[in-house]
Structure formats: C-alpha cells, structure tokens
Amino acid sequence: xxxxxxxxxxxxxxxxxxxxxxxxxxxxxxxxxxxxxxxxxxxxxxxxxxxxxxxxxxxxxxxxxxxxxxxxxxxxxxxxxxxxxxxxxxxxxxxxxxxxxxxxxxxxxxxxxxxxxxxxxxxxxxxxxxxxxxxxxxxxxxxxxxxxxxxxxxxxxxxxxxxxxxxxxxxxxxxxxxxxxxxxxxxxxxxxxxxxxxxxxxxxxxxxxxxxxxxxxxxxxxxxxxxxxxxxxxxxxxxxxxxxxxxxxxxxxxxxxxxxxxxxxxxxxxxxxxxxx
Length: 277
Known about the structure:
Blueprint: E1 15-19, H1 24-35, E2 39-44, H2 47-58, E3 65-69, H3 75-89, E4 92-97, H4 112-134, E5 137-146, H5 159-178, E6 186-192, H6 199-208, H7 210-214, H8 225-236, E7 247-250, H9 260-276
Parallel strand pairs: 1-2, 1-4, 2-3, 4-5, 5-6, 6-7
Helix pairs in contact: 1-8, 3-4, 4-5
C-alpha cells in the first residue's frame, strides 16, 4: 500500500463481514480494512480459495481474520456464516455484499437458468448478506453493496448483469430508508468499472482487448484494486457519516453520457460473432 490520505488505525475495534472475500475487489477491501485495524469475516463458496485468502490476509493481522464457506445463493448458509462471525468477533460495523458472477451472452439465447445464475448470485446474494447481518449490526453500521456500470448503462450481451445490478442499487436505496433513522445504518453501493486483476475485467478483456475497452473512457485505463479499496474506506470511515442511499462510481468516466459504453458493447458483439464463425 502506498502513502494513504487516511489516518492510521481508522477502523480499530471495528468488525467487517465481507462476502465474495476470497478474491478480487472483495479481498482487496478485506485487506484494506485489516490494514486499518478492523477484524474481518470473509465468506466465499470455494473452500480452497477461501482458505488461501485467509492465510494471506492473516499475515497482515494475525488472529483477526475468520473465514466461513457459504454460497450467497443460500440464505440459510449466509445466515449461519453471519452468526458464526458475530460469535467470533462481535457485532458488525461494516458489511460488504460483494459476491458476483458474469459472462457475455445474447439475451435471446440465455436460458432461464443462465439468467438466474447472475441474478441469484448478485442480487439475491446481496439481499441474503444484508438480511443475515441485520440482527448483528452495530449502531451506525456501514453497509456496502458492489454494483457495476451495467446498473445504469444498458449493454448488449449483459441483460442478466444489467438487471441484477440495477436491482442491487434499488435495494440499497430502499434499505437506506428502512434501516436509517433510529437504527442509523448507512447503506451505499460502489460501482467499479473495469478493475485490473478481476474476473469481471477479464471477461471483457478477452472479448475486446484493452485498447478498445478503455479507449473511449475519459480516463483511458483500468482501475486498480487499491483505488476501489480507498473508495470503500471513504464510505465506512467518518468521511461517510452523512452519505447514504447513493452509488459511488469508480469507473474512469465510463458512466458519463459518452459513446464509451456503446463502443464496448458493439466490440463485444463483434467479437462474439467472430468467435462463432
């Protein structure tokens, strides 16, 4: 980690619960929370990858990482994971619902199961995560859902992801109202664009190539995991105390009303058509 604008030990004595925590963005968030003094519960479906992540993160702050294997599509399993984490470390000050899945697919060729695969992991998984942690929330808890530009930008070959991420952002706004007030929860979303080193970016990189992928963005590069982690830290620290019901985009301007999203979608369509010949 390079020089940080955040105070050291910003999250001392805090407890975070992170789904999808074995890799990518969510592991980066868990790492940053640990670096800032928090204890972290990480949850993921693949027990082997989860244990590898636990060992890696435990080296940062020994004894402050607890890993529980669970599939976010299974509400009971997520509840059991949330209960186990709270028993280990106490009430949750921070909750991140980050498990996700995606692929490129023409809508007319998507099966019901294929469409549901993304909706169930992304949208239902976010609901399951937040609901499971509700009974364990500390006062003024900070909840973050991981969204994506597809929530606002229609993209060819992404009907499933667009629907799921739009649902996540609607859920965030709803819970900001429902769980605010006396309960004091702040509920927001992060919307990372194309982040280097993540499965989501690789899907588009393989189909399109980096030059075509980022060339239309005002900031023509991929985001870093550290940039997304810093945005999360902004929301869960004192700086986020008066922010709720919003989506913070870390997308290099992809969400601006330019032709970037259309160019990406068109390039993906061409790449898919070429692969089928």
